[in-house]
Amino acid sequence: MHYFITGGAGFIGSNLTDKLLALGGKVTIYDNFSTGRLEFINEATQSTECKVLKGDLLDKEKLKSAMVDIDHVYHLAANADVRFGIDHPERDIKQNTIATFNVLEAMRHNGVSRISFSSTGSIYGEPEVFPTPEDAPFPIQTSLYGASKLAGEGLISAYCQAYGFQGSVFRFVSVLGERYTHGHVFDFCRELLNDPVNLHVLGNGKQRKSYMYIQDCLDALLIVNRQNYGGFNVFNLGTDGVIEVNDSIGWICEELGVKPKVTYAGGERGWVGDSPFIYLDTAKIRRLGWNPQLTIREGVKKTVKWLLENQWCLGRISEK
């Protein structure tokens, strides 16, 4: 199988590249390297079965020419900056929705019919049912990121109906682990390495979240894509239970060996679009035999250890 991975030099994409190559697949990475890192794919590029193309998903002609002799597309590239989405709304629409349309058109142009799409649990907004199943009624969208991803899901569904595509959509909770470079664990680690005495937290620290370890996430993607599903299918991905942001702060501080004074901005949300409670029902994917191997706590602690061993990912750490 020849796989095409958008965002293949990013956190999830680079780990997926390694996994697919180890399983004997051939991979073409397509990334504009705005957030992807060459360091993450150094080992992969030593393989003759891995090709790297620098390109933007908004460049329709380059994307079409890149997607030749492809069997399966993993569309992982996106603007995931939920917090600052309201400051640049056009970015979510272009990089998430229009980019997804361009991927689908490149597939149609090249006769590629299988796509796996990284969506998000944020599309549920602030639901009334917990844990939230795939068929939950959609409330009002609360973030431009979630809205743009939901639009991408709609496009994939329409292409499955119109052109016989096979689409698998994965609604993730936040993913943690090796090569993680975006999110609150990353931010807290960087801030505490700069200032181990003080930590300021957006919101009240009581926001309830769910997280998933990267290798568990990849196992779920591969289990689904071994099935010969037709049409359009949606799967929630997450772990059992939830934690408070305060819980993860405690585990991060344990790993770093610090005891900072923690202050809070207040309010139940850290920013506009920040859902105070995320907990997804994963019964559907579990019926295929998938079960996460790491708890949320284990995922957080493994992530902190990796960041400590790879502080170049954190940017400049000031000397105290």
What does this structure look like?
It is a single chain. With 320 residues, this protein is of the alpha/beta class. The chain is 36% helix and 18% strand. Helix 7 crosses helix 9. It has nine helices and 13 strands. The chain is globular and about 55 Å long. The mean pLDDT is 94.
The gist of it:
The chain is of the alpha/beta class and 320 residues long. The protein has helices spanning 11-22, 60-66, 89-110, 144-163, 184-194, 214-225, 245-256, 283-286, 296-309, and strands spanning 2-6, 26-31, 50-54, 72-75, 114-120, 166-172, 174-176, 198-201, 208-209, 211-213, 232-237, 243-244, 261-264.
Q: Trace the largest sheet across and list its strands.
A: 3-2-1-4-5-6-11
Largest sheet data: 7 strands, parallel
Mean pLDDT across residues: 94
Number of helices: 9
Shape: globular
| Strand residues, percent | 15-25%
Provide key terms for this protein:
320 residues; alpha/beta; 7-stranded parallel beta sheet; two-stranded parallel ribbon; 9 helices; globular
